[in-house]
Design brief:
Blueprint: H1 15-30, H2 40-47, H3 51-78, H4 80-104, H5 115-147, H6 152-180, H7 183-204, H8 223-227, H9 232-253, H10 256-262, H11 269-291, H12 298-318, H13 320-323, H14 328-360, H15 365-372, H16 374-393, E1 398-402, E2 405-409, H17 411-434, H18 440-455
Antiparallel strand pairs: 1-2
Helix pairs in contact: 1-5, 1-6, 1-7, 2-3, 3-4, 3-5, 3-15, 3-16, 4-5, 4-7, 5-6, 5-15, 6-7, 6-11, 6-14, 9-14, 9-16, 9-17, 11-14, 12-14, 12-17, 14-15, 16-17
């Protein structure tokens, strides 16, 4: 059943059934891509490669998420029913194939340690799943904004929060499956579970019956024509501040576990990770819902960057990561930084589609949003990689013993990552202030306020 033919009345015209629930089913499934760190080390040991080599699978997944969204945005715009089906098939198939290559590369198998296995995992988890991620991420967003016209931020925040919350929900399940069933078996089981969840979401997802999707040249301007309705610097500013927010978020989040060890909380790393995932999801929902009450959604980005700059600067000045162990105040400041960055990282995602719709309208929002997600693709290749480069080339690694296990940490290196993120956050704030223009709604409100003062 296509979205153009949704009948009116009953559950068929219920915005929760046709938009919110399917969006959550899709995003709670594909959001588990962020659980990669839970099994990347186990995969590396199982197939006979270094963790560094295996880590590229996650970077490729994020890269192809952004690029598939950018190139398939027009396709999603035309038919969310087909795009959500492609997302379902690609995500589940990619996960199942990842399990197959892990099985074929296991100890005792003829392909153990073979580059074929590593390339197969890159292709499965990175490329195929990446296409599922990009199309699955985009498919419900415009639909949500059409059903929830008065609370667009709340609606998109709810779905994107599902993407962020997926890690907190799936982590204990994945840990249990790895212990009780096995590594590659876990991928096969989850491939089946997520296929069912996403397929149900695909069946339910539909645009409102009254919405007419512009198709012809006379009805629908090109993407470039739409972007040119405002100075091109406006869009460049949005793209860059989105890219910077993701880059900084990934730079810190990728080192989160080791930072927690540096301040002496290794035993609580799991709890802190769960709370950071909750803040990530909460930022997606909270910041976007808050933006619904504002005249200009860009104000939310100003708040995100100001908070990120403030907490990063405090931890940088106090050397909290380097000297925080045993100091309660410094530990609190470092944990607060982790939570603030996670919340801002999530909030940056949820507010992009609504900010774009406020500037450029709903006609080509999926395509424009898709192009903007290319920032996510490039940030996926730079954020954690730059942080790793800084950690590996500054400071000094020292041994830490936690629960009888020896691990190497670099407190100075992790502290130095903050110099990189602080500089980028300052650039992002300047972009917010001087390059991204106020929305038409904000300008109208300002003009009305000025006219009211003059008449008084």
């Amino acid at each position: 059943m296509s979205e153009e033919n949704v009948k009116t009345g009953g559950w068929r015209s219920n915005k929760w059934v046709r938009a919110a629930i399917p969006a959550l089913l899709l995003h709670c499934s594909i959001g588990t891509v962020y659980c990669w760190s839970l099994f990347s080390q186990n995969i590396a040991e199982h197939i006979g490669f270094s963790k560094g080599a295996v880590e590229w699978a996650f970077s490729f997944a994020i890269f192809f998420l952004g690029m598939s969204a950018a190139f398939l945005g027009n396709f999603v715009e035309k038919d969310i029913h087909k795009s959500s089906l492609i997302a379902t098939i690609c995500f589940a198939a990619g996960m199942a194939l990842t399990g197959l290559f892990i099985f074929l590369g296991g100890p005792g198998q003829s392909l153990h340690g073979s580059p074929v296995i590593l390339i197969g995992i890159y292709f499965s988890y990175g490329f195929i799943m990446g296409i599922g991620l990009g199309t699955g991420y985009l498919s419900p967003v415009k639909t949500l904004m059409l059903w929830f016209k008065d609370r667009k931020g709340l609606a998109t925040g709810l779905a994107v929060a599902g993407f962020g919350a997926a890690k907190a929900i799936a982590s204990p399940i994945m840990e249990s499956l790895q212990k009780n069933v096995g590594l590659y078996q876990m991928f096969w089981i989850l491939a089946g579970v997520y296929f069912v969840m996403m397929f149900v979401g695909h069946l339910l997802l539909a645009k409102p019956a009254g919405w007419h999707e512009p198709q012809g040249k006379g009805e629908k301007p090109s993407i470039m024509a739409t972007l040119k309705t405002k100075p091109i610097g406006n869009y460049i500013g949005i793209w860059l501040m989105f890219y910077i927010n993701i880059t900084c978020g990934l730079a810190l989040i990728s080192q989160e576990k080791m930072i927690v060890k540096c301040i002496g909380l290794a035993a609580s790393a799991g709890i802190i990770s769960t709370f950071s995932a909750i803040f990530n999801a909460g930022g997606r929902l909270g910041f976007s819902a808050w933006a619904d009450t504002m005249k200009d959604r860009n104000t939310i980005y100003k708040l995100i960057f100001i908070l990120s700059i403030a907490f990063t600067a405090i931890v940088m000045v106090t050397q909290g990561i380097k000297t925080g162990e045993g100091n309660t105040l410094l530990i609190i400041l470092v944990i607060a930084l982790i939570m603030v960055v996670n919340a801002g990282y999530g909030g940056g995602f949820s507010n992009v589609p609504t900010l774009l719709s406020d500037h450029y309208g709903m006609g080509s929002i999926s395509a424009i949003h898709g192009i903007t997600l290319s920032a996510w693709a490039f940030a996926g290749l730079t954020g954690n990689q730059v942080a790793t480069l800084i950690v590996n080339n500054t400071g000094e690694f020292i041994e830490r013993v936690d629960d009888g296990k020896i691990s190497m940490v670099n407190p100075v290196g992790y502290q130095n990552v903050l110099y990189f993120t602080l500089a980028l956050y300052v650039v992002a704030l300047l972009l917010c202030l001087f390059l991204v223009r106020p929305t038409d709604k904000a300008l109208e409100a300002k003009a009305a306020k000025k006219a009211a003062k003059q008449s008084a």
